[in-house]
Amino acid sequence: MEWRAKNFSFRFPRRPLVMGILNVTPDSFSDGGCFLDPGFAVDRAFRMLEEGMDILDLGGESTKPGAIPVEEREELRRVLPVLERLAGRFPIPVSVDTRKAQVAKEVLEAGASIINDIEATRGSESMWRAVADSGAGYVAMHMQGTPLTMQSQPTYGDVVAEIGAFFSEALVGLKEAGVDPEQVALDPGIGFGKTVDQNLKLLAGLEVYNRQRRPVVIGVSRKSFLGKIAGGDAGERLPAALACTVHAASQGCSVFRTHDVLETVRALRMWEALAGRPSEDM
Question: Could you say which of 124, 161, 192, 232 is the most buried, measured as most Cβ atoms within 10 Å of its Cβ?
Protein backbone atom coordinates (compact mmCIF):
# COMPACT_ATOMS: atom_id res chain seq x y z
CA MET A 1 0.00 0.00 0.00
CA GLU A 2 1.28 3.45 -0.93
CA TRP A 3 0.18 6.99 -0.04
CA ARG A 4 1.31 9.57 -2.62
CA ALA A 5 1.42 13.34 -2.14
CA LYS A 6 2.99 15.18 -5.07
CA ASN A 7 6.72 14.33 -4.88
CA PHE A 8 6.39 12.48 -1.58
CA SER A 9 5.29 8.91 -1.03
CA PHE A 10 4.94 6.58 1.94
CA ARG A 11 4.89 2.80 1.55
CA PHE A 12 3.11 0.64 4.10
CA PRO A 13 3.65 -1.35 6.21
CA ARG A 14 6.16 0.98 7.82
CA ARG A 15 6.62 2.74 11.10
CA PRO A 16 3.68 4.99 12.05
CA LEU A 17 3.67 8.53 10.68
CA VAL A 18 3.35 11.45 13.07
CA MET A 19 1.51 14.53 11.75
CA GLY A 20 2.28 17.62 13.79
CA ILE A 21 -0.48 20.19 14.27
CA LEU A 22 0.35 23.87 13.74
CA ASN A 23 -2.65 26.18 14.02
CA VAL A 24 -2.16 29.78 12.86
CA THR A 25 -5.51 30.85 14.26
CA PRO A 26 -6.62 33.07 17.15
CA ASP A 27 -9.35 30.71 18.34
CA SER A 28 -8.31 27.05 18.11
CA PHE A 29 -9.24 25.25 21.32
CA SER A 30 -5.71 24.33 22.40
CA ASP A 31 -3.05 26.48 20.73
CA GLY A 32 -5.11 29.34 19.31
CA GLY A 33 -3.16 32.59 19.22
CA CYS A 34 0.23 31.00 19.92
CA PHE A 35 1.57 31.03 16.36
CA LEU A 36 -0.11 33.96 14.61
CA ASP A 37 3.28 35.46 13.80
CA PRO A 38 4.65 33.61 10.73
CA GLY A 39 8.14 33.63 12.20
CA PHE A 40 6.96 31.95 15.40
CA ALA A 41 5.01 29.43 13.31
CA VAL A 42 8.04 28.53 11.20
CA ASP A 43 10.19 28.14 14.32
CA ARG A 44 7.57 25.79 15.74
CA ALA A 45 7.50 23.79 12.50
CA PHE A 46 11.25 23.24 12.62
CA ARG A 47 11.09 22.33 16.31
CA MET A 48 8.52 19.62 15.57
CA LEU A 49 10.68 18.41 12.69
CA GLU A 50 13.56 17.95 15.15
CA GLU A 51 11.20 16.02 17.43
CA GLY A 52 10.48 13.44 14.72
CA MET A 53 7.46 14.80 12.84
CA ASP A 54 6.82 13.18 9.44
CA ILE A 55 4.11 15.57 8.13
CA LEU A 56 3.27 19.14 9.13
CA ASP A 57 -0.46 19.93 9.29
CA LEU A 58 -1.04 23.67 9.01
CA GLY A 59 -4.44 25.13 9.87
CA GLY A 60 -5.80 28.62 9.24
CA GLU A 61 -9.38 28.10 10.44
CA SER A 62 -10.51 26.73 13.77
CA THR A 63 -12.72 23.63 13.52
CA LYS A 64 -13.46 23.25 17.23
CA PRO A 65 -17.12 22.64 18.19
CA GLY A 66 -19.11 25.83 17.65
CA ALA A 67 -16.41 27.50 15.54
CA ILE A 68 -17.53 30.28 13.19
CA PRO A 69 -16.22 29.92 9.60
CA VAL A 70 -13.70 32.45 8.32
CA GLU A 71 -13.55 33.93 4.82
CA GLU A 72 -11.24 32.42 2.20
CA ARG A 73 -9.01 35.48 2.05
CA GLU A 74 -8.54 35.54 5.81
CA GLU A 75 -7.66 31.85 5.91
CA LEU A 76 -5.12 32.39 3.12
CA ARG A 77 -3.73 35.48 4.87
CA ARG A 78 -2.90 33.30 7.85
CA VAL A 79 -1.52 30.29 6.01
CA LEU A 80 0.34 31.55 2.93
CA PRO A 81 3.10 33.50 4.75
CA VAL A 82 4.07 30.32 6.62
CA LEU A 83 4.08 28.25 3.43
CA GLU A 84 6.19 30.88 1.68
CA ARG A 85 8.79 30.81 4.48
CA LEU A 86 8.93 27.00 4.42
CA ALA A 87 9.17 26.71 0.61
CA GLY A 88 12.45 25.13 -0.43
CA ARG A 89 13.55 24.70 3.20
CA PHE A 90 11.25 22.06 4.63
CA PRO A 91 12.14 18.44 3.81
CA ILE A 92 8.81 16.80 4.65
CA PRO A 93 5.26 17.19 3.29
CA VAL A 94 3.15 20.12 4.42
CA SER A 95 -0.55 19.40 4.79
CA VAL A 96 -3.10 22.21 4.99
CA ASP A 97 -6.24 21.64 7.01
CA THR A 98 -8.94 23.34 4.93
CA ARG A 99 -12.47 22.68 3.69
CA LYS A 100 -12.45 25.37 0.98
CA ALA A 101 -11.63 24.43 -2.61
CA GLN A 102 -10.17 27.83 -3.49
CA VAL A 103 -7.91 27.77 -0.43
CA ALA A 104 -6.82 24.26 -1.40
CA LYS A 105 -5.92 25.40 -4.93
CA GLU A 106 -3.83 28.32 -3.70
CA VAL A 107 -1.96 26.48 -0.96
CA LEU A 108 -1.16 23.62 -3.33
CA GLU A 109 0.32 26.15 -5.76
CA ALA A 110 2.30 27.66 -2.86
CA GLY A 111 3.95 24.37 -1.94
CA ALA A 112 1.55 22.32 0.18
CA SER A 113 1.51 18.60 -0.68
CA ILE A 114 -1.57 17.34 1.20
CA ILE A 115 -5.10 18.64 1.79
CA ASN A 116 -6.65 17.58 5.09
CA ASP A 117 -10.40 18.01 4.48
CA ILE A 118 -12.72 17.76 7.46
CA GLU A 119 -15.73 18.12 5.15
CA ALA A 120 -15.02 15.24 2.79
CA THR A 121 -18.55 14.13 3.67
CA ARG A 122 -20.00 16.72 1.29
CA GLY A 123 -18.53 15.19 -1.88
CA SER A 124 -17.18 18.48 -3.20
CA GLU A 125 -16.31 18.10 -6.86
CA SER A 126 -14.30 21.33 -6.93
CA MET A 127 -12.18 20.33 -3.95
CA TRP A 128 -11.56 16.88 -5.39
CA ARG A 129 -10.66 18.31 -8.80
CA ALA A 130 -8.03 20.53 -7.18
CA VAL A 131 -6.50 17.47 -5.54
CA ALA A 132 -6.65 15.47 -8.77
CA ASP A 133 -5.06 18.25 -10.86
CA SER A 134 -2.16 18.71 -8.43
CA GLY A 135 -1.43 15.08 -7.56
CA ALA A 136 -1.64 16.04 -3.88
CA GLY A 137 -2.32 13.72 -1.00
CA TYR A 138 -5.81 13.95 0.46
CA VAL A 139 -7.19 13.09 3.90
CA ALA A 140 -10.90 12.32 3.66
CA MET A 141 -12.34 12.89 7.12
CA HIS A 142 -15.82 12.00 8.34
CA MET A 143 -17.83 14.65 10.15
CA GLN A 144 -21.52 14.71 10.96
CA GLY A 145 -22.75 18.29 10.50
CA THR A 146 -20.38 21.27 10.55
CA PRO A 147 -18.06 22.58 13.29
CA LEU A 148 -20.83 25.00 14.26
CA THR A 149 -23.44 22.24 14.71
CA MET A 150 -21.60 18.92 14.93
CA GLN A 151 -21.87 18.41 18.68
CA SER A 152 -25.50 19.50 19.05
CA GLN A 153 -26.98 16.00 18.85
CA PRO A 154 -24.91 13.52 16.81
CA THR A 155 -26.92 10.40 16.00
CA TYR A 156 -25.93 7.07 14.45
CA GLY A 157 -27.41 3.62 14.16
CA ASP A 158 -24.01 1.94 14.04
CA VAL A 159 -21.23 4.52 14.08
CA VAL A 160 -18.47 2.12 12.98
CA ALA A 161 -20.47 0.72 10.06
CA GLU A 162 -21.79 4.11 8.91
CA ILE A 163 -18.32 5.60 8.75
CA GLY A 164 -17.12 2.52 6.89
CA ALA A 165 -19.87 3.13 4.32
CA PHE A 166 -18.83 6.79 4.09
CA PHE A 167 -15.25 5.73 3.32
CA SER A 168 -16.42 3.40 0.56
CA GLU A 169 -18.60 6.09 -1.02
CA ALA A 170 -15.89 8.74 -0.73
CA LEU A 171 -13.31 6.56 -2.44
CA VAL A 172 -15.71 5.96 -5.34
CA GLY A 173 -16.50 9.68 -5.66
CA LEU A 174 -12.86 10.67 -5.47
CA LYS A 175 -11.89 8.19 -8.16
CA GLU A 176 -14.66 9.49 -10.43
CA ALA A 177 -13.29 13.01 -9.89
CA GLY A 178 -9.84 11.86 -11.02
CA VAL A 179 -8.19 11.29 -7.64
CA ASP A 180 -6.14 8.10 -7.60
CA PRO A 181 -6.88 5.94 -4.52
CA GLU A 182 -3.15 6.03 -3.73
CA GLN A 183 -3.52 9.77 -3.02
CA VAL A 184 -6.11 9.15 -0.31
CA ALA A 185 -5.93 8.52 3.43
CA LEU A 186 -9.01 8.06 5.62
CA ASP A 187 -9.86 9.70 8.95
CA PRO A 188 -12.92 8.60 10.96
CA GLY A 189 -13.08 12.04 12.58
CA ILE A 190 -12.83 11.31 16.28
CA GLY A 191 -14.68 14.12 18.06
CA PHE A 192 -16.27 15.55 14.92
CA GLY A 193 -19.99 14.99 15.34
CA LYS A 194 -19.60 12.15 17.86
CA THR A 195 -20.52 11.72 21.51
CA VAL A 196 -18.09 10.29 24.06
CA ASP A 197 -19.68 6.86 23.68
CA GLN A 198 -19.54 7.05 19.88
CA ASN A 199 -15.85 8.01 20.02
CA LEU A 200 -15.15 4.98 22.20
CA LYS A 201 -17.02 2.68 19.83
CA LEU A 202 -15.02 4.09 16.92
CA LEU A 203 -11.73 3.54 18.72
CA ALA A 204 -12.74 -0.01 19.58
CA GLY A 205 -13.65 -0.77 15.96
CA LEU A 206 -10.79 0.86 14.05
CA GLU A 207 -9.46 -2.43 12.72
CA VAL A 208 -12.49 -2.66 10.40
CA TYR A 209 -11.20 0.23 8.31
CA ASN A 210 -8.08 -1.68 7.28
CA ARG A 211 -10.32 -3.40 4.73
CA GLN A 212 -10.28 -0.21 2.66
CA ARG A 213 -6.56 -0.73 1.97
CA ARG A 214 -5.83 2.93 2.64
CA PRO A 215 -3.85 4.54 5.48
CA VAL A 216 -6.04 5.43 8.46
CA VAL A 217 -5.41 8.77 10.17
CA ILE A 218 -6.28 9.25 13.83
CA GLY A 219 -6.49 12.60 15.62
CA VAL A 220 -7.32 12.50 19.32
CA SER A 221 -4.87 15.13 20.54
CA ARG A 222 -6.23 17.15 23.49
CA LYS A 223 -9.86 16.53 22.51
CA SER A 224 -12.62 17.10 25.04
CA PHE A 225 -13.82 13.49 25.22
CA LEU A 226 -10.45 12.58 26.76
CA GLY A 227 -11.08 15.01 29.61
CA LYS A 228 -14.59 13.70 30.14
CA ILE A 229 -13.22 10.19 30.61
CA ALA A 230 -9.80 10.66 32.20
CA GLY A 231 -10.02 14.24 33.51
CA GLY A 232 -7.93 17.30 32.81
CA ASP A 233 -8.19 20.40 30.66
CA ALA A 234 -6.77 20.61 27.13
CA GLY A 235 -3.18 20.91 28.34
CA GLU A 236 -3.50 17.93 30.69
CA ARG A 237 -4.87 15.29 28.31
CA LEU A 238 -1.62 13.96 26.88
CA PRO A 239 -1.56 10.67 28.88
CA ALA A 240 -5.09 9.82 27.71
CA ALA A 241 -4.23 10.76 24.11
CA LEU A 242 -1.13 8.55 24.16
CA ALA A 243 -3.21 5.63 25.43
CA CYS A 244 -5.57 6.09 22.47
CA THR A 245 -2.61 6.45 20.10
CA VAL A 246 -1.01 3.16 21.13
CA HIS A 247 -4.39 1.42 20.98
CA ALA A 248 -5.02 2.78 17.47
CA ALA A 249 -1.57 1.66 16.33
CA SER A 250 -2.36 -1.84 17.54
CA GLN A 251 -5.54 -1.67 15.42
CA GLY A 252 -3.53 -0.96 12.27
CA CYS A 253 -3.80 2.85 12.05
CA SER A 254 -0.91 4.48 10.21
CA VAL A 255 -0.93 8.26 10.76
CA PHE A 256 -1.26 10.10 14.08
CA ARG A 257 -2.18 13.78 14.17
CA THR A 258 -0.97 15.47 17.35
CA HIS A 259 0.05 18.71 19.06
CA ASP A 260 2.62 16.74 21.10
CA VAL A 261 5.07 15.36 18.55
CA LEU A 262 7.97 14.26 20.74
CA GLU A 263 5.80 12.40 23.25
CA THR A 264 3.80 10.71 20.48
CA VAL A 265 6.96 9.62 18.63
CA ARG A 266 8.40 8.12 21.81
CA ALA A 267 5.18 6.32 22.72
CA LEU A 268 4.94 4.79 19.24
CA ARG A 269 8.59 3.71 19.30
CA MET A 270 7.98 1.94 22.60
CA TRP A 271 4.87 0.26 21.21
CA GLU A 272 6.85 -0.92 18.18
CA ALA A 273 9.56 -2.40 20.38
CA LEU A 274 7.01 -4.21 22.56
CA ALA A 275 5.18 -5.48 19.48
CA GLY A 276 8.43 -6.76 17.95
CA ARG A 277 8.37 -4.07 15.26
CA PRO A 278 11.40 -1.86 16.05
CA SER A 279 11.51 1.57 14.44
CA GLU A 280 13.60 1.98 11.31
CA ASP A 281 16.06 4.23 13.13
CA MET A 282 16.43 2.16 16.30
Answer: 192
What phi and psi values does residue 64 have, to the nearest 5 degrees? Answer: -70, 160
Active-site entry in 194, 222, 257, 269: 257
What whole-number distance in Å separates Cα of residue 249 and Cα of residue 127?
30
Q: How far apart are the first and last CA of the chain?
A: 23
Q: How far apart are CA 275 and CA 259, in angstroms?
A: 25
Q: Which of 223, 228, 266, 277 is catalytic?
A: 223
Which CATH number characterizes residue 229's domain? 3.20.20.20
How far is the C-alpha of 261 from the C-alpha of 59, rounded, in Å?
A: 16
**Pairing, β 8-11 against β 2-5:** antiparallel
What single-letter amino acid sits at 94? Answer: V
- Would you write out the chain's pLDDT as a tens digit for each of its 282 residues? 999 999 999 999 999 999 999 999 875 445 545 666 888 999 999 999 999 999 999 999 987 777 778 999 999 999 999 999 998 899 999 999 999 999 999 999 999 999 999 998 776 789 999 999 999 999 999 988 666 666 777 889 999 999 999 999 999 999 999 999 999 999 999 999 899 999 999 999 999 999 999 999 999 999 889 999 998 888 889 999 999 999 999 999 999 999 999 999 999 999 999 988 755 544
Domain that holds residue 181: 14-274
Assess whether 223 carries a catalytic annotation: yes
User: Among this protein's residues, is 105 annotated catalytic?
Assistant: no
How far apart CA 200 and CA 188 sit, in angstroms, is: 12
**77 lies in a domain?**
yes
- Residue 7 resides in a domain: no
